[in-house]
Every structure is written in C-alpha cells, then in structure tokens.
Amino acid sequence: MSMFANAQLPDGWKLTPIRTAFKTTEKPRGLSPANYESVPFIPMDAVPIAGWDVYPPEVRPGSEISSGTYCEDGDLLLAKITPSFENGKQAFAALDGAKFAYGTTEVIPLQAIPDQGVIEYLYSVLLHPGLRASLAGKMEGSTGRQRLGKEVLLSTPIPMPTPDEQRQIARVLATVQRAIEQQQAIIATTRELKRSLMHKLFTEGLRGEAQKPSEIGLVPESWDVKPLAQIGDVIYGIQAAVANKFAEDETPIFTNKNIDLEGRLDLTEVNSFKLETSRHFATKLQYGDVLFCWRSGSKEHVGKTAYFDLDGEFTHSSFLLRIRPPSHGVGRYLFLLLNHLRSDGYFVRMQNYAVNAKFNKSAIELLPVPLPKDEDEMREIVAALDCIMDRLELAQRKLDGMQDVFKTLLHQLMTAQLRVNDLDLDTLGVPVLD
Length: 434
Known about the structure:
Layout: E1 14-17, E2 22-24, E3 38-42, E4 58-61, E5 69-72, E6 76-79, H1 84-87, E7 90-92, E8 100-103, E9 107-112, H2 119-125, H3 129-136, H4 150-154, E10 157-160, H5 163-204, E11 211-214, E12 217-220, E13 224-227, E14 233-236, E15 244-245, E16 251-254, E17 271-273, H6 278-281, E18 290-293, E19 295-296, E20 305-307, E21 315-316, E22 320-324, H7 328-343, H8 346-349, E23 357-358, H9 361-365, E24 368-371, H10 375-414
C-alpha cells in the first residue's frame, strides 16, 4: 500500500504510479560514444546530496567510455545504490550545451512525459523522507551493495496534481532548496575560514614573532611545548556496552556518536548508565572538561573533540577520553587546538588504521601542546576562534531551520494539506530568490 493512500487529495489530483508522468531515459539505438571526440561523464562524486545540479562533469574521449548510463541535458539523476540513495544523492544533469552525457552505472536518469509530468516536481517528491525510506526498504542485493530497481521506482504511486500545479509546487520548493544551497555555501566558506584562521593562530600566534619547529609543526618561538599530560588529567570513560536508553534514574552517557565534526555535543540520542562504583563516579563530567574521541571505525572521526559546558550530570563512554585542564580558559584553548589538529589531518597522519582508528590515552598524554606564555595572547586566540565558531553555529541553525521548512512544505504540498496559493515564504524565514 502506498504511504499516501490515506491522503485526502483534492479534485484534479490522482494517486498514480510514477511511470504515468515520468520515464527513464533510454539511449537512442545506434548511438556510440566512440563516435564522438569527447563526451561529458558524470561520476557518482559529481552527484550531490539533495543538490540542484550535478557538479561540472568530467570530459572524456568518447573512445574511452565503454560503459555507463546514458543521460540527456536536464535529466534528473537519481542514485540507486546504498548508501547513496538513502543519503539523498540526486541532481539534474547540467551539460553546458552538450546534448547527452554518460554517467556512473549507479544512477537512474529520469525525464518527464510531455503534458503529464514536471521533472522538478518529481525531484522534490523523491526527497520526501517517508517515500525514500519506503523505497529503501524495497532495494535488493547483497548487504552494502543493494540497489533500487527501475521498475520498483516507476511503479511507486505518488500524488499527482495537474502539470500546472506540479509546476507551481516545484517552483516554491525550488526556492527553498536554492536558499538551502546558498546557506550551505555560506557554511562551507565559514568552515574554510575557520580552518585557515586556526592554522594561522596556532602556528604564528598574534605577536608576529619568529617560528620554531615542534613535533606538531611550526609554532611561535616564545611558546612552550608540553606533553598534554602536564596540562590536564586524562582518563578513559565507562565500558558502555550495557548502557540503556535514557532513564530518569540513570546518568546520561556521551559516546563518540554524540560529538559531531564541528565539536558540538549532539543530544538527539543519548543513552544512560547507572553509576555504581567509585570508578564510575570518577567519570562524571565537570564544566570545562574536554572530550576527545580516540577510537572510531572511521578515520575522520578520530580526534573529534567537544567542550563540556552543559548543566546537569553527565558521564562518558570508554571510546572518549576526558581531559580535565587546570582552568576553563585552558580547557577552551585545548578544545580549539585539538579541533584544529583533527581538521588539519594530524591524527590521521599519526595512526595505523589496520583494525580500528586509534589514538589512545598513552598517545594523547604524550601529544605535544603549544602554549603561549602570555595568558592574554591565549585569551585573544580563544576569543577570535570562538567568534567564528559562533558564526558557524548560527549559520548551521539557520540551515537546520530551512531544511525543516522544506520537509514540512514538501509533505503538506504533496498531500494538499497546504496549497501553493496559501503560501507566504517570507513568514517562514525563507528568502524569495530570483
């Protein structure tokens, strides 16, 4: 049964299979890329997650293209393999004047049937979380290589307004989507600015002095370089294999999943643990503690670091090291330095990932930490970096709000709970773009 089966659709709308208004793109008989000097090629990396257009395609000699998916300018390319499909990889083929291209075999190219469908409407429909989850449940193949079949996709019923209303719905949702992409670009620029500023401040300082080499790279000549164990106490957390879902009489326990790559603590899903021994109680966090992810199955997640500044009682799992510095100011500085080292690739370069990504207690205690002798310089560095971290956090919250608006509008417009003529995007905090 379709997930939209119970939707109360208005007159002129139908609940009908995708194939009634859309089709997959088929290669014309006799066409061979070998007959062309150059052909645009779209690898999976060029298909963004919920992006509008693919990234600029590669250009390959036609003679080198022996396989791939034929597509035409303006086609909607839908990733069909796990995890790309579940992650929402899809975009339009923007071919810059070329009539056709080849792409990865792991996409399904889609076109609208004239006078029946509007391809931009289908683009939005396929981003509906419920529909995508339903389709993901119908993927076939071995674990890790499951694929969505064309027939499964085309036979899936979706709400189908008239082409004119499809166009109006698509225009509204595209406005929100473009605003989201602009906000994502702002965040990407801010992240790069943060990365560059961190590198400059932790290698050059603020006083314009000469630099000296250290085990982690160049640092200002006057700075001390000390093992982290001389700056803060380091302990493992609790073996949390038996941690429960949150219970009122137990203590929330942070694991590596609760720290994101920006160093924020994510409270979306926090398990709990019953503190019973002195060892358990020793892991209770204090304001200003630093949490360091020393072990993960993913290289880029080793070195994720958070600064604990929450109210309430929390503890942490054994995959996180707790570093307790002598003061909040030193803790904040240390948090920012470790964040810089992770984003700069230091922890990846220093490890052997044969089994699990690791940077354990002994290694972190020996980590060379550059410290300004002038406490004012340390405070100024922290203030400068906190300013850009705040800007990044604000930009992320704005993006989260836009994405929530998109999901809500998408569902309500698709099920006619809300009609296009009733909308005012300004009241939703979404800029109307030209």
